[in-house]
Amino acid sequence: MPDNARVVAYAATLEDGHRRDLTGILEALGVDVTGASSAGTSSYDVLTLEVVLPAAAAPVRAALAAWTSTTGIGAAYVPAAVYGPGPKLLIMDVDSTLIKQEVIELLAAHAGREAEVAAVTEAAMRGELDFAQSLHHRVRALEGLPATVIEEVVARIELSDGAERLVEAYLGAGHRVGVVSGGFSQVLAPLADRLRLSFAKANDLEVVGGILTGRVAGAVVDRREKERTLRAEAEHAGIPIAATVAVGDGANDLDMLAAAGLGVAFNAKPAVRAVADAALDLPDLDVVRHLAGV
User: Fold this and answer.
1) DSSP single-letter state for residue 160
2) Going from the N-terminus, what domains does the chain have, and what CATH number goes with each?
3) What's the distance, CA 178 to chain centroid?
4) Could you count the other beta carbons within 10 Å of the beta carbon of residue 151?
5) What residues are annotated to the active site?
6) Other CB atoms closer than 10 Å to residue 148's CB: what's the count?
7) What are the helix (H) ranges across the chain?
8) pLDDT reading at 129 higher than 80
9) Is 226 helix (H, G, I), strand (E, B) or coil?
10) In this predicted model, what pLDDT tens digit does every residue of 155-176 receive, in sequence order?
11) Burial of 270 (0-12, 13-18, 19+ CB in 10 A)
């Protein structure tokens, strides 16, 4: 049975030739291209094609992946449930996604152990280490630091380009936006308040007598907990899981990217790019709202 969907292409610059090439590829697969629109800012261009599929989406996804590999231009197949009418939910990772930095590395710099912690973080994000074990290992490097370093780190955080526009667009349209992080609630809370996020979940750094103990209080927010949070928040708000978008960059985001209606790998590790529905390599999160039709 025919299926309505969208194909969205995105790059720093798109030309008329790219539109013709992509349309030709789709039509060769028997896909009916029924409309097109363009959008963008000074940092990116977006082309959205309205399409009707005669059969399964798998050949279209494969053709888009091949075209991206050849041209370097991002392209994603977006099911109608993601961009259609009704309430939506956007859930994002924080470190190296919503923000430009890795918070634990900023904290570790105060202990003179940033390089050591960064190496463990990188291996964990590639999926080479168990996330919970790697987190406990890295947090131990913070033992003995005064809790005041948290405020210093909060002051240094930079939002990723386009992050504020993306959040404002979702919230302004009446949708929900939240974050779930393998980082720390003490750092995340001020950011969540600033952006007026619908929800925020992260790990708690244990503090005793104003000093970091080098331990995490409670269970670790790992990849399974990230997926569970996505499903729970969608159910709580009465939003179909098919109408959700998840964005992340590391191996601990894989489960929530797979569960969401559209999983977006943002400047991500190869293992994440390989399985995500869309790989966004532009340094601008705002592109995500075009994928979701917001």
Assistant:
1) P
2) 1-83 (3.30.70.260), 86-294 (3.40.50.1000)
3) 11
4) 12
5) 93, 95
6) 10
7) 16-28, 58-71, 80-83, 103-109, 114-125, 131-140, 149-156, 163-172, 185-195, 223-237, 254-259, 270-273, 287-291
8) no
9) helix
10) 999 999 999 999 999 999 999 9
11) exposed
